[in-house]
Amino acid sequence: MSLNNKSVLVTGGAGFIGSHLVDQLILEEPEKIVVVDNLFLGKDNNLNDAKNNFPELAIYHKDASIKKDMKTILENDGIDIVFNLAVIPLPASLEKPAWTFRHNNDITASMCELAREGLFKTLIHFSSSEVYGNSISGSMDENHPLNGTTPYAASKAACDLLVLSYCRTFGIDASIIRPFNNYGPRQNEGSYAGLIPITIRRILQNEPPIIFGDGKQTRDYLYVTDTAKAAIKIYKNTSTRNKVLNIASGKEISIVYVVQLIAEYMGFPKKILYDPDRPGDVRRHIANIYLAEDLIGFKSSVPFEEGLRITVDWYINYLSGKKKADRKTRRK
User: Fold this and answer.
1) Of the candidates 182, 213, 197, the residue with the CA atom closest to the CA atom of residue 87
2) Which residue range(s) make up the domain with 112?
3) What pLDDT does residue 279 have?
4) pTM for the structure as a whole
């Protein structure tokens, strides 16, 4: 199942994980790569490297939930494979719960219908570890109950069930990748930002980091390129079809450790602030990755401390450059 000479579409391809996936896809030498992203979270500059390395990259600023627009793109570009990463993120579901739920399901329904109609051959659908909610006992495998605690988590669980139903009822060729907590360069640092970019940004502004709750909540962090490479391996291995695969490090890290390590890397001596728990916040999160190890030989390759240092350095350079650019713009 080589990607060579194939035409590939990545929805959400200008986003954090999506842009890294595009970078990895380029190394596979496909005939065509197409990105669809409405820039709700994504940024065109996330694809700067990709555009330099693959000048033929096609980018459409479209909403992946609108089936007729997606059908036109699929037909015009002769797409073989869709990696579906388009999503409305978790924090948005705390502000607009019903809209987030509907929109995420509409995106997935659009892709499933187009696959059923034969507009493309294979769907690699991106899920989220949030579908599990809190760990019941130890590491969570793919059979862990779907106990999501937010409307976002509920939407992603519904999307997974929808994809699997299309596999079983209509025979579409699809696999589901369920990443845990990704981190690395290009993660959104603005609205709906995650813990790591928020903490880095606050320290750069000489503000103390904030932890919600006691900081003893745990997450299973994975460097973003490990996830991108895993998605490609899932496509290549047909034994993953009609299945869900956890992709994670299999290691548990506390929120307070993450924040303290960032503060240490950045030489920030002030105290960390603690705010009340956020609604729907998961208490314990750790993955069982045995299935991914068995089917695609998956293993995380970037140790957390190393990946975090790379990430901190990237954000310091990126945010400093952005600040300088903003100053120049104001002077004009």
Assistant:
1) 182
2) 7-184+224-249
3) 83
4) 0.94
